[in-house]
């Protein structure tokens, strides 16, 4: 076997080391560019997200909107800095919601707040205005309108039942909902409002507690009527005595 001269062996070794160093340098240079090329542009991402318009009466809350596009912010924007994701989410607020948020965080600026905190604040600002009980109460009163087709009505049922949070409903809460929902008479309007207020403030209220509240309100109303009658009789008696003195 022919032997390789030391000079040639050294030259080959140097070339091999140089080639290896060049490959390592190219790897370092090209790696960030490859990741950058895989990162979608801000405009492309924005085009895949609809504008947020706050309309809680129709279920358009920020929580519902963000849930719809959460994968875009957490996966496709996963390599973005917080500041870029904040700009993207604020870019998709309509003019009214955007201005309201900007005013709310003053004197801070949007880039002073991280993405997670921004989302939390937007959920708080543009969430449901009704309490959970009120949402459940309205769900039980849901009815199909003449202008709605069955698909639209089914969508309304799905939305209201999703917000109802049936899995978290206790037996006592359900009984109280049925009890209050059945107070439809005009003569029960005051009691219904009082009971609604009580259920708003006490999530653990029982139907027995509602009955006691009804009795208390009824008793107070009767006392008020009795007092009013007494005052009217006294006023009438005073008037009669005045007339007698004049005659």
UniProtKB/TrEMBL annotation:
Return the protein name.
Retrotransposon gag domain-containing protein
The DUF7083 domain covers which part of the protein? 42-128
**Protein origin, superkingdom:** Eukaryota
Q: Which Pfam families match?
A: DUF7083
Q: Which InterPro entries match?
A: DUF7083
């Amino acid at each position: 076997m022919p032997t390789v001269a030391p000079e040639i062996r050294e030259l080959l070794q140097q070339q091999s080391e140089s080639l290896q160093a060049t490959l390592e340098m190219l790897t370092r240079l090209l790696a960030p560019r490859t990741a950058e090329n895989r990162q979608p542009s801000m405009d492309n991402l924005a085009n895949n997200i609809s504008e947020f318009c706050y309309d809680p009466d129709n279920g358009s809350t920020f929580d519902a909107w963000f849930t719809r596009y959460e994968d875009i912010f957490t996966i496709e924007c996963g390599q973005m800095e917080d500041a870029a994701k904040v700009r993207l989410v604020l870019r998709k607020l309509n003019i009214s919601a955007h201005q309201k948020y900007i005013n709310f965080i003053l004197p801070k600026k949007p880039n002073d707040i991280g993405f997670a905190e921004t989302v939390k604040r937007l959920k708080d600002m543009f969430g449901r205005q009704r309490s959970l009980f009120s949402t459940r109460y309205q769900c039980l009163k849901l009815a199909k309108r003449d202008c709605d087709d069955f698909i639209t009505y089914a969508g309304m049922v799905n939305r209201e039942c999703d917000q109802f949070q049936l899995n978290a409903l206790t037996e006592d809460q359900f009984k109280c909902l049925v009890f209050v929902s059945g107070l439809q008479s005009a003569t029960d309007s005051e009691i219904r409002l009082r009971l609604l207020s009580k259920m708003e403030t006490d999530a653990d209220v029982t139907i027995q507690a509602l009955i006691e509240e009804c009795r208390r309100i009824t008793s107070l109303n009767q006392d008020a009527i009795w007092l009013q009658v007494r005052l009217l009789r006294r006023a009438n008696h005073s008037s009669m005595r005045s007339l007698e003195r004049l005659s």
